[in-house]
Amino acid sequence: MKDYLLSLLLDLDGIEQDPYYHPEGDALFHSLQVFQHAHQQSDQPLLWAAALFHDVGKACGSKEHDKVGADMLRGVLNERIVWLVEHHLDLLIAPSQTKRKLRKHSLQLKQLQQLRHWDLSGREFNAEVISPQQAITLLDPYFTQIVA
């Protein structure tokens, strides 16, 4: 399982992103930044994992990387993580509709808002990031919580 998750991250290495939205560079560098923000600002490993794996679908070249990434993680990671990955763009694409849809699910909305905030924060060109292997190691003690 850890090898599979690590391979998903390593597949992001060199995956270029639109520089207008992602001046920081490739999808792996971005994902590691997002993970570090989550790790520093939250005590919830579930959110750390969602932050780390939110863009794994970009390695497939699909415009629907959120849905593709969720499919890649389904059956591997906890369903809440998969849901966050699948919906991590909802607050960008349809913020009012998403908030209205989740108004009775305040925890889901709060987690989605946190992930969106970290996603936007992970765009520093000169950021220092840990390696994908180090990120997996930080998740290691919590694998029973984050796996399906």
TrEMBL record:
Q: Name one GO molecular function term.
A: transferase activity
Provide this UniProt record's keywords sorted from A to Z: Nucleotide-binding, Transferase
Question: Do you know which SUPFAM superfamilies this protein is assigned to?
Answer: HD-domain/PDEase-like (SSF109604)
For the keyword Transferase, the answer is yes
Q: Which residues form the HD domain?
A: 30-100
Its domain of life? Answer: Bacteria
Report what the protein is called: tRNA nucleotidyltransferase
